[in-house]
């Protein structure tokens, strides 16, 4: 890791925000829209986030979900890198069991070469999809998999990034390029940067592993809110200082949607809740319009799901969202808050980030 690795990880607080703010973008695709629309909006969100002082912009690997266009984080991030200047870019995350560690080291080494000192490599152990798709991705011939070999995969990936397999290891002469081997080659110049590795999780497994390895940890509060506080406590209790971090650094990713009118935020949130009903019942699709969600014939169980799901979505006017985020920070002690906004309409998502930035008095141009 570079000497200033901790500074690369830790963000800067702007305005009256309780912690550095960042963006997690799933590049959602609404009914009547295309992945091209979602990718164009991703660029707009990243530029807005950079201009307003958000610390990082991440995308997350998902597969076989028509309403999510972020199947290929490295490709998307290269596109975003070419259209931004300062904001950190990363994966929230790459699902490591789906890939050979060497391939990820090469992809994110390439991103680091494209955007030096700006790249985060967030890693998860879930498949980011259903079992059959995971089997197709991994070419295992079997469904499922519990991620028990994730620590070994992680160690292999970090060794490729640092080019430090020991003598006698089968991969001692295998080098990830771009990477440190170029600096040790005749006439080579060593790059001072390499991607900052993060662990992502929604339970205690990755929290404890991140703490033991002294890595920054990002928790998926947006879909596992009941586990947030216990996982962060376990991370902090398990933490051991490392070259990357002297002290724990915990990021909490939260679902947040601000609108000019409270009822509009409620309508947008209901539409995404309907998309989650369909996903969890094996019928994934595009994000429905609020009008479709309003007229949908919910069963009692589905109404209860919408109520439960949206209780963890911080939504409403900008002032209401600010209060909700402040409360989340107070309850979790998060070192950074990462906001993910789900809505059918791309303009609604852009407006939400702008309203939240205004509510906290973030700079008009950081």
Strand content: 5-15%
User: What's the β-strand tally?
Assistant: 9
Q: Measure the end-to-end span.
A: 27 Å
Estimated structural class:
alpha/beta
Helix fraction? 40-55%
> What is the 3D shape?
globular
Uncertain stretches = none
Strand order of the largest sheet: 1-2-3-4-5-6-7-9
Mean pLDDT equals 93
Round the Cα radius of gyration to an integer and report it: 20 Å
Polypeptide structure, described:
This protein is of the alpha/beta class and 366 residues long. The protein is 43% helix and 14% strand. The chain has 14 helices and 9 strands. It has helices spanning 5-9, 35-52, 73-81, 101-114, 131-138, 150-162, 181-184, 204-213, 228-238, 262-280, 290-295, 300-310, 318-332, 346-359, and strands at 21-25, 56-59, 88-95, 119-124, 196-201, 217-220, 250-258, 314-316, 336-340. The protein has an 8-stranded parallel barrel with strand order 1-2-3-4-5-6-7-9, surrounded by 8 helices. Strand 2, helix 3 (73-81) and strand 3 form a beta-alpha-beta unit. It is globular and about 65 Å long. 48% of the residues are buried. The mean pLDDT is 93.
């Amino acid at each position: 890791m570079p000497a200033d690795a901790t500074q690369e990880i830790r963000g800067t607080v702007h305005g009256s925000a309780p912690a550095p703010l960042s963006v997690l973008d799933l590049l959602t695709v609404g009914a009547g829209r295309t992945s091209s629309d979602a990718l164009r909006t991703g660029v707009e969100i990243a530029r807005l986030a950079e201009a307003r002082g958000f610390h990082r912009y991440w995308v997350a690997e998902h597969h076989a979900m028509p309403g999510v266009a972020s199947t290929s984080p490295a490709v998307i991030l290269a596109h975003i890198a070419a259209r931004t200047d300062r904001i950190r870019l990363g994966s929230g995350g790459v699902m490591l069991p789906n890939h050979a560690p060497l391939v990820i080291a090469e992809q994110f080494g390439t991103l680091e070469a494209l955007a030096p000192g700006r790249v985060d490599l967030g890693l998860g152990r879930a498949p980011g999809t259903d079992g059959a798709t995971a089997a197709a991705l991994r070419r295992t011939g079997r469904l499922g998999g519990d991620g028990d070999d994730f620590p070994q995969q992680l160690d292999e990936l970090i060794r490729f990034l640092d080019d430090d397999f020991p003598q006698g290891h089968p991969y001692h002469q295998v080098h990830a390029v771009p990477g440190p081997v170029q600096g040790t080659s005749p006439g080579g110049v060593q790059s001072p940067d390499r991607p900052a590795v993060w662990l992502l999780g929604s339970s205690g497994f990755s929290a404890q592993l991140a703490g033991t390895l002294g890595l920054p940890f990002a928790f998926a509060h947006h879909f596992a809110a009941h586990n947030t506080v216990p996982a962060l406590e376990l991370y902090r209790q398990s933490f051991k200082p490392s070259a990357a971090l002297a002290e724990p650094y915990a990021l909490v990713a939260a679902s947040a949607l601000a609108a000019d009118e409270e009822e509009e935020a409620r309508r947008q949130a209901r539409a995404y809740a309907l998309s989650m009903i369909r996903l969890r019942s094996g019928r994934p699709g595009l994000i429905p319009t609020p009008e479709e969600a309003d007229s949908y014939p919910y069963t009692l169980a589905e109404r209860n799901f919408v109520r439960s799901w949206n209780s963890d979505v911080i939504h409403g006017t900008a002032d209401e969202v600010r209060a909700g985020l402040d409360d989340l920070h107070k309850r979790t002690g998060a070192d950074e808050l990462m906001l993910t906004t789900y809505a059918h309409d791309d303009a609604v998502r852009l407006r939400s980030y702008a309203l939240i930035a205004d509510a906290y008095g973030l700079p008009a141009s950081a």
